[in-house]
Amino acid sequence: MSREFLGSFRPDHRTPEERVPQILARGRIIVGVDQSQYLLSFRDPSTGELRGFEVELAKEIAQDIFGDPNRVEFRFVDSTDRIRALESGQVDIVVQSMTITRTRQDQVAFSTPYFTAQTRILTLVHAEVHSSKDLAGKTVCVTDQSTGLDTARREAPESRILKVRNWSDCLVALQQNQAVAVISDDAILSGIAAQDPYTRILDEVLREETYGVAVAKPGTRHDTLGLIRQVNFTIERIQRDNTWWKMYRQWLEPYQTTPGPPPTNYREE
After folding, report:
1. Domains with residue ranges and CATH for the chain
2. What are the residues whose beta carbons fall under 8 Å from the beta carbon of 112, sequence distance 6 or more?
3. DSSP code per residue over 216-231
4. CA atoms of 57 and 54, how far apart (whole Å)
5. 168-213: per-residue pLDDT in tens?
6. Quick one: a GO cellular component term (predicted)?
């Protein structure tokens, strides 16, 4: 039997000066992101700027701390190095389509969920793949240490698995016929499909997941409890004032559907 998810820490009535004094004194929040997840967090080739749904979320967090959405230092963090980057203090938070799992909660703390995603399959339009059952004997691309890897092993156990470092590598693998499908969350797959009109996302839903902002676990080594509450303050605020929907419509609505912002999930204190 799987262990139940832990709730996050509810926002309190303190000010940012009281919750995150060290970040305020520094003058910026350091955020670990991807730079190759189109629509979520990617570098615009025409301007060199980071853009996407998760980039906007990071800026909203900065807005609530500093009154300025541009007080963010973005640092590229590989999906295999996210937890180490938090533990070492290289970044304050990670906003990188990081699925909340009970196993990960033993390693890092999470905010309340900010996005609900469905794990699905992306393949080429001409490929003879219509469901996970058609993947037997074929090569499926996933990123290493992702929940997509776990899903591929469970839902397509007879497939060959190609593990790469980031999702843009999976698009290249498809285009070069090194893989016939990609298994990931629809938010990530939407970004791949938007870059290649010869791909399609199957209707089959393999699992549902929620993303959270990752923070080093509070304790003797990391004084992060106030930061977690501050992030949750922003997540609640963007849901309440419809900023969440504005971000979703700008970046993801043309490519997928959503039930809306996920419900908050807090622990009893």
Report:
1. 16-116+209-252 (3.40.190.10), 119-208 (3.40.190.10)
2. 7, 8, 212, 232, 235, 236, 262, 264, 265, 266
3. EPPSSS---HHHHHHH
4. 5
5. 899 999 999 999 999 999 999 999 999 999 999 999 999 999 999 9
6. extracellular region
